[in-house]
Structure formats: C-alpha cells, structure tokens
Amino acid sequence: LGDYYLYLIIRGLELRSVPRDEYGEIRNYCAHLAWCLYHSKDKHLSEPEFLEFHKSFINKHSLSLEHEPRKRLLLEARLLEKHDGGYRFSYGYIYFFFLGQYLSEHIEQQDVQEVIRLCCKNLHISENGNVILFLAHHSRDKRVYESVLAVMQAQFAGHAPLMLETDVDIV
Questions:
Q1: Low-confidence winner among 2-6, 61-65, 152-156 (lowest mean pLDDT)
Q2: Distance between CA 68 and CA 142 in Å, rounded?
C-alpha cells in the first residue's frame, strides 16, 4: 500500500521533471511539513505559517532553498494544494505517508513516542489508524508492532480467540 502511494508521489515529481537526486530532500521536506501540520489545528498552514516553517526547515538543515520555487513545485506536483487561504497536502494519503515517514525517522524522540502511544490507544479514530498504518510501512521498529499488539490484546481481553476449525461450521 505504502509503495503504491510512494509511486504516486514520485510520479508527481517526475511530471515536473524533478531530478531523481532531489527526491530524498523533497521527501524529507514534506515529512517535516506533515509533522508541522499534525500540530496545527486545521491541518493546513497560512502563507505566513508556511513561510515560517520553510525558514525553520532550511535553518535546521543548513540548506539554501528558496520558499517560492519550493512551494510552486509542491503545488505543481500536486503534493500540496491551496486551501482556505493557506496550504495543505492535496490528498490524505500524502499527508499520512509523510507523517509516517517523519515518525519513523524520529522514533527515538519523546514527543514522537507520545504521538505513537496516543494513536495506538485510539486506533478506532480513523486519523490515528492511518498514522499507525503509514508508520508501520516506514518503520521496522518492533515497538510500533508491540504497541498495536498491546492495544489489541487489551481490547479483546476476555474474548475467546476465533477457532477457524470449529467456529465457522455454521457458515
């Protein structure tokens, strides 16, 4: 599933003739943007907020990267779209793909671990399920799987496991 979404993301970049050696940096930029959007109330950034994110990103990573060309590229590649006077990811899967990437790459940070715990405890909420789904795609860290398993075991405690040999006889 995640590989298909990666294909769609890369296809958008290919259509804009982005050199392959820039894909990694663009994905990193989008992963950090997704983390920023996760903390925003409306899951979109106003123009000044987007500019502030951009400045923070280039300073943190010591990059020389102009805001307007990057924004234009992400809009033209249909990774971002204008929304309510600001910007957001064009599709939910793009947002969750990049958020999962960010969480996977920063899994040792306390704030990231807290987000993962919160999402696992509330998997019944669609957004949280999508976060964990894409985190599982990006990460091979056993803590992710153990967290989901612990929630599932607690959810179904007291229920007998389904026995395919006998429980489906009625069907």
A1: 152-156
A2: 40
Q: Rounded CA gap, 95 and 89, in Å?
A: 6
User: How far apart (Å, rounded) are the C-alpha atoms in residues 58 and 29?
Assistant: 9
| pTM score above 0.85 | yes
| Residue 85 CB neighbour total at 10 angstroms | 8
pLDDT at 163: 79
- Select from 11, 7, 5, 16 the least CA-distant residue to 72: 16
Residues composing the chain: 171
Q: What is the pLDDT of residues 151-168, one digit of tens each?
A: 888 888 888 877 777 776
Query: 75 to each of 31, 71, 72, 140, how far by Cα in Å?
Result: 16, 6, 5, 31
Whether the CB-CB separation of 96 and 59 falls below 8 Å is answered with no
Enumerate helices (H) and strands (E) in the chain, giving the number of each: 8, 3
Query: Which backbone phi and psi does 82 adopt, to 5 degrees?
Result: -75, 140
Neighbours of 41 (CB within 10 A): 5
